[in-house]
Structures are given as structure tokens and as C-alpha cells.
């Protein structure tokens, strides 16, 4: 039986389309501190499929942020290979494959919410002024801030500023969202609301998401898979698949299966903490 459209093994276009969103093989990172070399990350290997939501949890200093920086092409690893949809990280970064959301959204105080969201496209000289504005408006609507386009950051609550940060991260239509403790500084209720919003936005935009968090419940609620890291040296010690149905709603937080997963992850983290205690 023949099919003229079937992919062949050698087809580079189909190979690139089939490549995982993020793939790391034996990634190692050494840093020098006070003249001494130390291993911050040791042989990290992982593969994240397109459209997957994956979290990294682990103790402070285990290298989570360093790993994000390597994936984003901001830091060249000491060893190993990184592939972003079949490209090297620097090429992927230049192609604007990444959107970043950090704990502090760092909005420009003299620009309105809309102008902050518009900024990446302005800097990248993308589209006409009218197109940029329309896209920024659409993104503000997406994060539920359509009525706050003209507000300066100082007039927005912490949660609203994070929403602007998410809208800005999506401004150049990235295929991968890298989130480093984005809601760490928020109170618990606002954080839960923001997580629900994040899930909605992620499913609407169909991006790949990689989240760094200290919060085990947050990792379970959001993720398809969670990687547990340990410190000294930073490494992956467990991978947990979260078998909770989607779409996920806040009532999930009271269900037995949710508790079972958070318990398992907490146990893995504590077990590791005991093993690496000084
Ligand atoms: N540029 C650098 N030079 C030297 N050491 C570094 C550098 N960047 C990170 N480190 C060290 O690498 C280790 C991992 O740091 P990293 O910030 O990635 O950890 P983390 O897991 O994100 O921590 P936290 O959860 O506290 O944010 C730490 O010991 C840190 O001091």
C-alpha cells in the first residue's frame, strides 16, 4: 500500500515537526566559586513533548533556574546537548520560540498595561503600530484585563501585574513558555486563581509549558509530568506522571487523587532532603 503523503524516515521537515519541544541529553553545568569548581547540574536528560505542561520541583539551589537558562539559550552548558524542536537553543531564542514569566513581572512603570504588552513586538519591530496594538489588546483580553489597557502598573494589584506579565510573554507567539516561580509572591487564593487562568491560557494557546515551582500542589494541579530534582549536585531523581483528567478545575484540589500525587511528590522531596543533608 502506498501513500504519497506519508512521511519517510529521511524527511527533514517531518523530522523537525516530530521533534520533542525540549530535549536534553546528559546536560552538565559546572560553575567556579571562590576558585573551586562545583557541579551545579549533573547529567540531566529529559524530553518534553509539544503542548505538554511539565514542572520542575526541588530544593533551593538544586539548579532549576540554571536549567531554564540553559534551555532558553541564555547559558551554554558545560556538557551535553540541548535541542529545542530540533534546533539549538540560541537559534530557537533568535526565532522567538520562548516566552518568559518570572516571579517579578518587572513592568515599565511609565507605560500603560497595553504599552507593556506591546513592548516585545515594538522592540522586535514586528508588524505595524496598529497590528501591534490590536494584538496587545487581544492578549490583555485573554488574561482578563481588557478593561485595564490604559492603567499604569502602579494601579494594578499583584495578581493583575502577573497577568500583564503573562500577556507580554505571549506577545511574540512563543511555542514554549518558561515560567520561573511566576506566582511565588502571591497570597494562596490569588495564586490558585492565577493557576486556573494559566491553565486556561495554556490550553487556548497550545504552547508547551515548563514551570519551576517550590509548590508541590501547584505542580500537581498544572502538570502532565513533574520532575523532582535533588541538590549537590543538581540532578533529576524522579519523574511523576500526573494522571488527573483535563480540563482541571479548582474542585480537583479536594480530590483523593490530587492528595495522593502531592503526598508522593512531598515524600520524594523529603526523602531526597534527608539523603543530601549535611
Ligand atoms: N553564574 C553562576 N556562577 C556561579 N554559581 C552559580 C551561577 N548561577 C547559579 N549558580 C549556583 O548554582 C546553583 C544552582 O542555582 P539555581 O539558581 O539554578 O538554583 P535553584 O534551584 O533555581 O534555586 P532557588 O530555588 O533557590 O531559586 C546554586 O548553588 C547557585 O549558587
TrEMBL record:
Which PANTHER family has this protein been placed in? ABC TRANSPORTER ATP-BINDING PROTEIN, TAURINE IMPORT ATP-BINDING PROTEIN-RELATED
Pfam families tied to this protein: ABC_tran (PF00005)
Q: What is this protein called?
A: ABC transporter related protein
What keywords sit in the KW lines? ATP-binding, Nucleotide-binding, Transport
The record's listing under InterPro entries reads: AAA+_ATPase, ABC_transporter-like_ATP-bd, ABC_transporter-like_CS, ABC_transporter_ATP-bind, P-loop_NTPase
GO function terms (MF aspect): ATP binding; ATP hydrolysis activity
PROSITE patterns this protein is in?
A: ABC_TRANSPORTER_1, ABC_TRANSPORTER_2
**What positions does the domain ABC transporter occupy?**
22-256
What organism is the protein native to? Conexibacter woesei (strain DSM 14684 / CCUG 47730 / CIP 108061 / JCM 11494 / NBRC 100937 / ID131577)
- UniProt superkingdom: Bacteria
